[in-house]
Specification:
- The chain is an alpha/beta fold and 213 residues long.
- Helix content is 32%, strand content 20%.
- It has a 7-stranded mixed β-sheet, with helices on both faces.
- 46% of the residues are buried.
Length: 213
């Protein structure tokens, strides 16, 4: 248990109370945003029975540089952020929610952390949603990740001209999860920029509904 910059931050909760929930969404915010802001997105796709859990980054930023920088340039924030994501997943599991009913969703920096967490801790989850983000590092070799996510639904959505996220990294991220045995739904949107659209929210809503069916 490291004690990084994000370990003393608040875990924002919403949706169905944890002790009553049968599923959970772990929501990871982007650079400059807040746990409360990503919870608002989660509430747009919420279903009864789903707890919302959102870790908060210190000073609203998980790591200082681009996710395409050498990994060491983003420490200790990256490692601390991954732990914050894992702690939120564990919080749901400790409350009695099956890990197979825990969906991780992130936007931008949060999508990078959520993707990296699942790729490094491969097992069956309720889902992974990476909105405008991808696996972290100067380079990514899809074949270097080992394990089996056991057909976890993986939604990867991004613009073809996102100023922060190269299309090649989105493609490599989707390929990595295919090799990890994920059920990958990759959607590239022409000219969207850096944001979230209705098609993505509809897809996430379907995944969330599947957690409680």
């Amino acid at each position: 248990m490291s004690d990084g910059p994000h370990q003393d931050q608040q875990l924002v909760t919403a949706g169905t109370p944890l002790d009553e929930a049968t599923a959970a969404m772990v929501l990871v915010h982007g650079r400059g945003a807040t746990a409360r802001s990503i919870v608002q997105m989660g509430q747009e796709v919420h279903r009864d029975g789903v707890a919302l859990l959102a870790p908060q980054a210190a000073r609203n930023t998980w790591y200082p540089n681009s996710f395409l920088s050498p990994v060491e340039q983003n420490e200790p924030g990256r490692t601390s952020g991954l732990q914050a994501v894992g702690d939120a997943v564990d919080r749901a599991v400790e409350a009695g929610i099956d890990r197979e009913r825990v969906l991780l969703l992130g936007f931008s920096q949060g999508a990078c952390l959520a993707s990296e967490y699942v790729a490094r801790n491969p097992r069956r989850y309720g889902g992974l949603v990476a909105l405008s983000g991808g696996l972290i590092g100067e380079t990514v070799d899809p074949a270097s990740y080992e394990g089996d996510v056991e057909r976890t639904p993986v939604f990867v959505g991004c613009s073809d001209v996102d100023p922060h996220i190269p299309l090649e990294r989105v493609e490599a991220t989707a390929e990595a999860f295919e090799l990890l045995n994920g059920d990958v739904d990759k959607r590239i949107y022409e000219g969207m920029g850096h944001g979230v659209n209705e098609d993505e929210l509809d897809a996430v809503g379907d995944l969330v509904a599947g957690l409680v069916e």
